[in-house]
Amino acid sequence: MASIKKIGVFTSGGDAPGMNACVRAVVRTGIYLGKQVVGIHQGYQGMIDKKFINMDARSVRNIIQLGGTVLKTARCAEFRTPEGREKAYKNLVEEGIDALVPIGGDGTFTGAEFLSREFGIPVICVPGTIDNDLYGSDFTLGYDTATNTVIEAIDKIRDTAASHDRLFFVEVMGRDSGCIALHAGVAGGAEAILLPEKETAIDDLIVKLEEGALSKKSSCIVIIAEGDKNGGAYNVAKRVKEKFDFYDIKVTILGHLQRGGTPSSFDRVLGSRMGYAAVKALIAGETRKMVGLKGNMIQLTDLEEAIHNHSFKLEEDLLEMATILSI
Amino acid sequence: MASIKKIGVFTSGGDAPGMNACVRAVVRTGIYLGKQVVGIHQGYQGMIDKKFINMDARSVRNIIQLGGTVLKTARCAEFRTPEGREKAYKNLVEEGIDALVPIGGDGTFTGAEFLSREFGIPVICVPGTIDNDLYGSDFTLGYDTATNTVIEAIDKIRDTAASHDRLFFVEVMGRDSGCIALHAGVAGGAEAILLPEKETAIDDLIVKLEEGALSKKSSCIVIIAEGDKNGGAYNVAKRVKEKFDFYDIKVTILGHLQRGGTPSSFDRVLGSRMGYAAVKALIAGETRKMVGLKGNMIQLTDLEEAIHNHSFKLEEDLLEMATILSI
Amino acid sequence: MASIKKIGVFTSGGDAPGMNACVRAVVRTGIYLGKQVVGIHQGYQGMIDKKFINMDARSVRNIIQLGGTVLKTARCAEFRTPEGREKAYKNLVEEGIDALVPIGGDGTFTGAEFLSREFGIPVICVPGTIDNDLYGSDFTLGYDTATNTVIEAIDKIRDTAASHDRLFFVEVMGRDSGCIALHAGVAGGAEAILLPEKETAIDDLIVKLEEGALSKKSSCIVIIAEGDKNGGAYNVAKRVKEKFDFYDIKVTILGHLQRGGTPSSFDRVLGSRMGYAAVKALIAGETRKMVGLKGNMIQLTDLEEAIHNHSFKLEEDLLEMATILSI
Amino acid sequence: MASIKKIGVFTSGGDAPGMNACVRAVVRTGIYLGKQVVGIHQGYQGMIDKKFINMDARSVRNIIQLGGTVLKTARCAEFRTPEGREKAYKNLVEEGIDALVPIGGDGTFTGAEFLSREFGIPVICVPGTIDNDLYGSDFTLGYDTATNTVIEAIDKIRDTAASHDRLFFVEVMGRDSGCIALHAGVAGGAEAILLPEKETAIDDLIVKLEEGALSKKSSCIVIIAEGDKNGGAYNVAKRVKEKFDFYDIKVTILGHLQRGGTPSSFDRVLGSRMGYAAVKALIAGETRKMVGLKGNMIQLTDLEEAIHNHSFKLEEDLLEMATILSI
């Protein structure tokens, strides 16, 4: 394989805190190791629209602490067609980009896998998504920050819940993964946690809430992942209300504020390590891999496995612990 | 009038950050000036249920930084009846409480006004509500903290909005008052602000958003007070979407997290000053007044005027400025 | 006077949170009203070095939430000489700048006053300094944010102080003004507050601390403005230690982190209002004035009075209150 | 071994955020599993002074989000003597406490190891210290929060550094361990990081700073662990100043505010898991172990090894990466 000369870096899919730390790491590591680096704005759409920007070390100054992504992100229907991808690849070649660091979730990876398979361009992906739902990394970029954002909100809600003897249903992000809900539920001292991976009968929830009421809890907070099978916080609240009126009941949907915010120390270090490792892996001749954190070490996973393996299971022991700790 | 011996302090209505700073000030000022102080839990309900707790200086230690109210709050239907109030007053007499510092909004004040008029007990009220909608004080307790909570959320939403070229509709508290919406809208750099006090035609809003799109704004945030006449953020979003699809559109309802959180420096100083002034006013023989901040001075306003005067108007100049600053 | 065509805006002296909100307001208000606006980098030094940047509405996008100043600031010895000022003015004329909005403290104002007096260029100044020590405005830009930064630090210190039964001496900014120390001391529930404006005998401080120990306080925090006559936190700690050893004693100097940070809602609104008002005043033909907030209204004060009048006095009543509330 | 009936839990040594989450977990897990739980105030001193408090599930309500430790902590000279330990043990027996969960650092563990060896009482220790310097756990309790506190301070300092073209030396905690300095340095984008584990020649530091100046860095931040061999931030600043004056130089000592603050999500989950696991281990008959997090699993390590093994080494690769990422 010919030596890499110019690395393209981009963010795609939902933005996640820490992406900027990762972009900064890709740019500076690449430059330090004698490569050129190009920022591609708006992901795959930007490849098609030729939104290429040459980066130098100063291009990424003072961005490590910023939420969102300075390279922006976008959905791109055209890229899902063979013609779209061909156009994108032609533009990359024209620009001289001969390797890619895509940062995003499984949709991003799927695009990168296509590009690499169809045209042979080396890709090393970075898992950037708040959902923490990718095989091959203990943590995805943005997850720690999002969880902290959720518990700051829960702390605020607890203040008012405890002042009023109220029951709050708080809906957090996670269509397929209950990771944010579970960890934020433990950290927020939630009385119950409802997850996509595990069905919760409303009657069982009510029993749990009644026990709390009997043991003189002055307030209750129930965390509900958006993907919970009962249909979200409003539906759960409605059904609980029909049978249980010990507390005044309120609902909060945290929504998109979970995506933003200045990244935590953990996510900045993680983004830096992943971006650094991705460039090193590309230069070492690797391709079609995802960088990930396992234990305290950076490891590579086959991209296809990262995309298709959904074998990581819910931390059932944490869920059991959460039940015990909220007595 | 006989000298006051024992002051009752309570919080009622919606909780607001800074209430604890105020309770602390009432307790310690009262004790310092040789009075006894009793905390009444859960407001008027607590009077009826005899939830009286003797306070000493250490009872309020380490609470100045806490959100919510350590005295708790509750709605109380019984107190709205003459019999309920008589029971409450009987309990106050039995407990030896001969003066009151109620902390809350106009509902709280109305209850206090009744008690005072019907039974002659001296009351000095403190305006504690995040809405900043009371005559007689430039600021109510909790408003500054709530506004900061809103802009922290807007900052996070802006991160993700700018990464995706999105248009967000963010609904904030304020049924009758657009104060939070207006100030958070200015501070958050919102592209438009919809308020209860001023009807906004959806078509005018769309014109404004189109201008933003033309001037290459990468994202837009519209702040909507819950009392806006168009029917809240979901309705506005739906109606805008029908005619304007330049941006991807999202909705966030901030909800009750606006009530909680550790109070800002401003609210802690304000709560301290108001609690301190309320006790001094009671001891000086005042009654049926609300303490308020006008300019940088604490002033007393007749309670009836604080309850019934709604003459403060929207800061139209700020709204005009907001339009100019978001070009 | 000829109509203004091109407004120069700059920040000078110590940076303060909210300066960016003010720069944004000056730029957009100027443009909205048909003027050109030039950002001058690094204040007076930038005038001499011709660091002029034409601003459009998008130049100030997404800066309202940033700490520091995007226009940067610098000290400039050369500008203190008549030759330096002449050079600066010549450059302004060459650039076509015919009016100025300087943002800073009394040093900044003095420079502006000279320029205006010597060369007749209209200036409207904005008080941007965390010290809140300028006549003509109830609040200076950055003061509210700095005070919140201090109380967040005090809250953290209180956690560890209360866990260990410790006495902390915390030094905060304020060479001549005890405003931050006083308000943060009240808001942080400090046991004592030492200020430049009022000498505190160490023996009196020890008496106060002994009373706290007797009344079973588990920790004590003493706030000391850097300009206190006893010589700063280390000196006070040393002298207290010689006579009072009930608690383990620690010292914290908060230092420059008090200057930075994302501005509070209050400072963003204040910066916006002041920048907006400054441009409107210039266009209305005003000069040699400072915009300020009095009560809830923007008012103009003669620049010379803002510079030379030091008649605002310490809020003695707040200091007395602080003593009572910390029993 | 007889079945455990009453578990004593205490915190000792320096306080750390997350200790309260751990205490809550110990109490509720113990109660849920049919044991009694006693909180021992002020660690070993409290054992000697009989500061025992019976805990029920409600005793630990609403503490998961609090910094510091509700059980308080203290140093205890008497416990270092055999007589002191005998007295402590006698009091434990009298109180019926037949197992212990000590939370703290290596000093705490040493005390527990003595107690257990001399008197046979089962102990399972939890690593609670912000320094992250214990063998047997990837993370100690409080480290994540402390690192976040440091980067929040660095972000603020960066605002003002970048506005003024300044060079800041920021001293962070870590007498023997550079863990906080290294991670906060990476996360804060520091230009250089000085650690106890690795000597840095001042001349090499100056070369690095000169390179930064040449590459047009507008500001520099150097993080220095308090245990760095050059003698702390003031000394380093002084020596750099003698040879390098491109930037204005300032020093900040973050000090004890690094200990406090509401714990991060990570530390709350970690504290919960560790407390839960400690009780389960005690009940399972384990003793003289430390619970720790390895990868994503809770594991037990022999207490003596946790105390005496200092074989974990500096993450040299992270330090190298930090150098590259700050070009």
UniProtKB/TrEMBL annotation, chains A, B, C, D:
Alphabetized UniProt keyword annotations: Allosteric enzyme, ATP-binding, Cytoplasm, Glycolysis, Kinase, Magnesium, Metal-binding, Nucleotide-binding, Transferase
Active-site residues, record numbering mapped to chain: D131 (proton acceptor)
Domain Phosphofructokinase, first and last residues per copy: 6-282
The reaction(s) this protein catalyses: beta-D-fructose 6-phosphate + ATP = beta-D-fructose 1,6-bisphosphate + ADP + H(+)
Regions annotated as coiled coil: none
One example GO MF annotation: ATP binding
Alphabetized InterPro entries for the sequence: ATP_PFK, ATP_PFK_prok-type, PFKA_ATP_prok, Phosphofructokinase_CS, Phosphofructokinase_dom, PKF_sf
Residue sites binding ATP per the record: G14, R75, C76, G105, D106, G107, T108
Sites where the protein binds Mg(2+): D106
CC terms in the record's Gene Ontology section: 6-phosphofructokinase complex
GO annotation, biological process: canonical glycolysis; fructose 1,6-bisphosphate metabolic process; fructose 6-phosphate metabolic process
Regulation: Allosterically activated by ADP and other diphosphonucleosides, and allosterically inhibited by phosphoenolpyruvate.
Cofactor: Mg(2+)
PROSITE patterns: PHOSPHOFRUCTOKINASE
Annotated substrate binding sites: T129, I130, D131, R166, M173, G174, R175, E226, K250, H256, L257, Q258, R259
Sequence positions that bind ADP: R24, A25, V26, V27, R28, R158, G189, A190, E191, K217, S218, S219
Pathway per the UniProt entry: Carbohydrate degradation; glycolysis; D-glyceraldehyde 3-phosphate and glycerone phosphate from D-glucose: step 3/4
EC number(s) per entry: 2.7.1.11
Enzyme type, top EC level: transferase
Compartments, as annotated in UniProt: Cytoplasm
Record Gene3D superfamilies: 3.40.50.450, Phosphofructokinase domain (3.40.50.460)
Subunit details: Homotetramer.
Family membership noted in the UniProt record: Belongs to the phosphofructokinase type A (PFKA) family. ATP-dependent PFK group I subfamily. Prokaryotic clade 'B1' sub-subfamily.
Function: Catalyzes the phosphorylation of D-fructose 6-phosphate to fructose 1,6-bisphosphate by ATP, the first committing step of glycolysis.
Name of protein: ATP-dependent 6-phosphofructokinase
Taxonomic source organism: Arcticibacter tournemirensis
